[in-house]
Write a structure and sequence with these properties.
27% helix; TIM Barrel; 210 residues; alpha/beta
Length: 210
Amino acid sequence: MSLTNSDMLDGGNRLPLVEDFYTIQGEGFHAGKPAYFIRLGGCDVGCRWCDAKYTWNPKVFPPVDVDEVVKRAKACAAQAIVITGGEPLLYPLEILTSRLRDMGLEIFLETSGTHPFSGEFDWVCLSPKRQQPPLAEAFGRAHELKVIIQTEDDFLWAEENARRVGRYCRLYLQPEWSVFDEIMPKIVEYAKANPRWSISIQTHKFMRIP
């Protein structure tokens, strides 16, 4: 799925940009924080409930010069950058993160952890998926583990992953949006019985923002 042709990516000087925009982080530990989102195209995980399926095919998104994206981020009031996808670790991110860091910005990554890490990040949100589990290195890099809960079986999957992250990694259970009303009461009871877990909700959907 990734654009591995060096002529297209130029070592990370160009990346398949889907969109970049200023909004409020809606999920996880940083929910409520203003942030500039950089969304890259391409994903080989393929979650059936994904709400960003339009990002999956990287060929739809011709590579854009990183400098253009950094320039827009610099002009924004945001103090934090969220690099997301798709799956952003399909691509070399060293150049992008280095130039953003030079501007004094915090850099957050959202990833399934299915590809080797590249780039420097202040915060890594790992969201593991059953059909393509994370690489071993992802667990050690995660500051936040965010597991999507669609059925009660997913609690077992959450615990499997929680056993592999570091001691200080924050743990979150997040209801899958299409079954929110059905699964939310079960997540609440599970978190109450297992208080090391917190609950993440897609608050941006309630706020009706990107």
